[in-house]
Each structure stands twice: as C-alpha cells, then as structure tokens.
Amino acid sequence: MLLIHCPYCDELLPEAEFAYAGEAHIVRPENPSDVSDEEWEKFLFIRANVKGLHFERWRHVHGCGRFFNAVRDTVSDKILITYKAGEPKPDLEKLLAELDR
Q1: What count of other Cβ atoms lies within 10 Å of the Cβ of residue 37?
Q2: Could you tell me how far CA 82 lies from the centroid of its own chain?
Q3: Which residues contact residue 1 at a Cβ distance below 8 angstroms, ignoring those fewer than 6 apart?
Q4: How many Cβ atoms from other residues are within 10 Å of residue 61's Cβ?
Q5: What is the C-alpha separation between 34 and 31, in angstroms, rounded?
Q6: pLDDT tens per residue, the chain (101 residues)?
Q7: What burial letters (b/e) apply to 78-97, b meaning 16+ CB within 10 Å?
Q8: What string of DSSP letters covers 16-40?
Q9: pLDDT value for 49
Q10: What is the pLDDT of residue 101?
C-alpha cells in the first residue's frame, strides 16, 4: 500500500485517501485565446512520462480537500517528499543527498 503524507494535515495516510491530479508545476497560459491550437494541445495533453523522479499533484479528497505536490520515484513508486501547493519545486540534488544520509 502506498502511504502519502498530507503536508496540510501532517498525517501519513493510505493512498485511498487521495486522488492523483496529474503532473505538478504546469503553468496555464495567461491568455488562452491567444495560444495556437498546437500550444493549447501541448498544455492540455502532453506531459512528461519520466522514469525516475516525477513531480506530481495530489488532492486529499477524504481529508482537508486541499491540493499539494509530491516527488515520486516512478520506478520504486516511493514518494520522497510532499509539499504545499504554491511552494517551489524542491532541489532534487539536495533532496537526494539528504535521503542518502
């Protein structure tokens, strides 16, 4: 079972408490009507499909209801860290160095 830490509730809970909400840090175009069809398609549908560390967005649907971000290793399915929405991406090199300690 995948356990996920909600950074708002500060609890480690089963995955069933949460809903996956896609790739994190996707920026919506400021003026969607000014964007070409190809750019709009990329915004809506094209996402990274990395093997390794991936920035994801989750929602604590059976708790506080808030969205937050996570760094998950797609190979091991382990979540390395969660952080509140709006916070900057963690530095992966620094994160990995701290985990190696």
Answers
A1: 7
A2: 8
A3: 14, 15
A4: 13
A5: 6
A6: 899 999 999 999 999 999 999 999 998 899 989 999 999 998 889 888 889 999 999 999 999 999 999 999 999 999 999 999 999 999 888 888 877 66
A7: ebbebbeeeeeebeeeeeee
A8: GG-EEEEESSPPPPS-GGGS-HHHH
A9: 86
A10: 61
Q: Where are the domains of the chain?
A: 3-27+44-100
DSSP H/E element including 96: helix 92-100
> Phi then psi for 36, rounded to 5 degrees?
-70, 165
* Amino acid identity at 61: V
- Contact indicator for 63, 55 with CB cutoff of 8 Å: no
What is the third-level CATH fold of 3-27+44-100?
A: Folate-binding fold (3.30.2270)
Give the C-alpha distances (Å, rounded to integers) separating 82 from 41, 69, 72, 76. 29, 6, 9, 16
